[in-house]
Amino acid sequence: MKTFGFIAVTTFCMMLFAQQTEAKDVTITVKNNADVQRQELVEVDAASVYKTLGIGKGEPFIVRNALGQEVAAQVTYDGKILVDAAVRPMGTAVFTVTKGTPKPMKTFVCGKQYPERVDDVAWENDRTAYRVYGPALQRSGERAFGVDVWVKNTPDLEVDKRYVTELSNHHKIQELKKAGKDREALEMTQATTYHYDHGYGLDCYKVGPTLGGGAPALMDDNGLILPYCYKTYEILDNGPLRFTVKLVYNPAKIGKDANVVENRLLSLDKGSNFNRMEVWFDGLTQPRKLAAGVVIHSEDTESVVLGKDMVLYADPTDNPAKQNFQIYVGALFPYGNVATQRVADAVPVDGAAGHAVGVTEYKPGERFVYYFGSAWSKNDVRTFNEWKLRASETIDALRTPLKVTVE
Questions:
Q1: Cα–Cα distances in angstroms (integers) from residue 45 to residues 36, 41, 72, 103, 146, in the given order
Q2: pLDDT in tens, 328-357
Q3: CB 230: neighbour CB atoms within 10 A?
Q4: Which of 31, 49, 276, 315 is the most exposed place for a label (fewest CB within 10 A)?
């Protein structure tokens, strides 16, 4: 028995040693077959990397570029390792993954819910920020349905600071007004509100009961069946390179179907002007038209592009006469089967002149994927022509992704 025990232990140790010695570094090669510079996140199957490295799920690893420098990486909720890859035209980038604990990473993308601001879910990356409205706002009776856009001209994370600065000063401003100090109250409002640009951007986009800057909506003979606010949310990824949230909406009566539930899975990556949106409907039994796009505001109804695979708009902001800049918004449909058009709203919205949307024939059980996004003329996209180019290059990149091989 003692001999058997010794043999068993020895065999186990040899097997463990063999497993350890078989563990190897992982090489990720990213090939750019296009004749333009590409920089975007690439995805690698996490399970295969863990297996090759000889580590368990969730254990740390380090990603290095060809110079040996550590680069940011993220493991997503659905088992992908994200790496931010810059690849020259017709070029190749090589990364090496090894076991070990990485240095602290800078966060480029993040989001959260703000119950102190009627349950907003807001998120941002190094280019722009967005929010959608929640149950508390719906209970208040305020009508704000779509995606809001917050412009910024810094790669730093700004949303949380904007909320804190504005909300923490509301009480002080009200106290000044009660004391008859209207001038001081106005000065404090101007100094703390996120509706003014303090050098880093602002909220100057009008949403109301519209699609705003990219929401989806089913359609009937009268036009868009606009959703209201989300019912529940679940943040699945929260940086440093990707933010992902699942939103579930309240049941609604759509035609003969009494309890149709809209689901949205949206994500935003570092460096991207566009969010990925995946939308599907539970409880829908009949095919129906599904639209996605942006609201057109009455101050400028002409700056609209209806392409075969995109709708783009140069939004005039909530005060074009005084702001003197534009917000570029749009929706992209890289996977076809979409007709772009302008639609009038069944119930006209004050300040809005309909929508620019892409329309598809949605069948129950399907998941529809499109992209929506924005840019600001005071940041990285100065003109509407630049926005058109940014949209076209984004669609090209989505259709011809970087080629990733793992060894």
A1: 26, 13, 16, 22, 34
A2: 999 999 998 999 999 998 778 889 999 999
A3: 23
A4: 31
